[in-house]
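User: Show me an example of a complex going from sequences to structure tokens.

Assistant: Sure. Here are the input components:
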Amino acid sequence: QKEVEQDPGPLSVPEGAIVSLNCTYSNSAFQYFMWYRQYSRKGPELLMYTYSSGNKEDGRFTAQVDKSSKYISLFIRDSQPSDSATYLCAMSEITGGGNKLTFGTGTQLKVEL
Amino acid sequence: EAQVTQNPRYLITVTGKKLTVTCSQNMNHEYMSWYRQDPGLGLRQIYYSMNVEVTDKGDVPEGYKVSRKEKRNFPLILESPSPNQTSLYFCASSLRVGTSGGSQYFGPGTRLTVL
């Protein structure tokens, strides 16, 4: 079983829809939780990171963490075609080598006109 | 502009021919890392460096070498590439260990094909 599980999709939604992207994890040592967006032929770019359980909002994006269930989500409101990308969840734990990131395999999202 | 740059962006080579992929960041970041991205496996860390002259293995270091002689540069070396190293490679950096939960800035990627 992978430490981080993420549905690969693809997920196709109409413009304006609310999108929910999710990851589950098994490692209780994860302390920080991140979402990255990756456009085709580009490197991942950080969208949001959070430390504690609860919600964190940034514009149209809301990250939600439930440590008790080992479950994190990213919600995108009023989705736009420009949101079409692959979304990667990532989690970090403190190790001897600093913050070690473990990534999900990514969910491919397509927002259609 | 703050960025991580990688060169080359695309490379096709043959088995056994040594190659180097360069990585440079202009943000004065202490922490740098190399990842490979493969379908169904996601991003996996190859090597990382916590500062100049400090490097260590990640999850998949076999067949790779790195060096960190300057803070801004972190080249990835494949001494004898093999076809199973065909992949998309990303360099990443962050300010220092522990900041922002370890969240990192990524370069644009290098697509390597080993024939």
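The lines above are the inputs; the final block is the predicted structure for all two components together. DSSP finds no helices and eleven strands in chain A.
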